[in-house]
Amino acid sequence: xxxxxxxxxxxxxxxxxxxxxxxxxxxxxxxxxxxxxxxxxxxxxxxxxxxxxxxxxxxxxxxxxxxxxxxxxxxxxxxxxxxxxxxxxxxxxxxxxxxxxxxxxxxxxxxxxxxxxxxxxxxxxxxxxxxxxxxxxxxxxxxxxxxxxxxxxxxxxxxxxxxxxxxxxxxxxxxxxxxxxxxxxxxxxxxxxxxxxxxxxxxx
Length: 204
Fold this sequence. Notes:
transmembrane helix; membrane; three-stranded mixed sheet; mainly alpha; 204 residues; transmembrane; single chain; 72% helix
């Protein structure tokens, strides 16, 4: 699969689901109006191939640009709560250390690193909050901060430095996809268990 395709497929899938009435809880939990969320996802799709040069040695991929206002929106809605902020910093630190370990272990598989990094991000997000917005902020913020720190530390190895490359966006969307599946799967499983308990009590 061509790098960047997965993130576009995820965005288009979410656009279709939201537009057709599915995922109604998503924009309610994120405290975003439905048109705003659709506009952001469309922007992510249309900007996926655009790169701007901030200097001769630094380039920025516009496909990752909309993650910044989303992250700021979540942090503003939560009042930059201590739990979210510390969880984000913890996730970023662990992800950065995992990435440095991967850099030192040159024989390590990139897929192994991505699995480990994804588990770290999801583990921190789910262990510190039960709200979707908080969990997404921890995952997105942690991945972006750790990516930025790694690029700064290894800037001599890149010419130019490109923040938000296609593989990174695919990875973010892969982790976010698992987050959504786990979040709503956990919720529906909890509801099913409650209904089962109520049913068994009535039978008794």
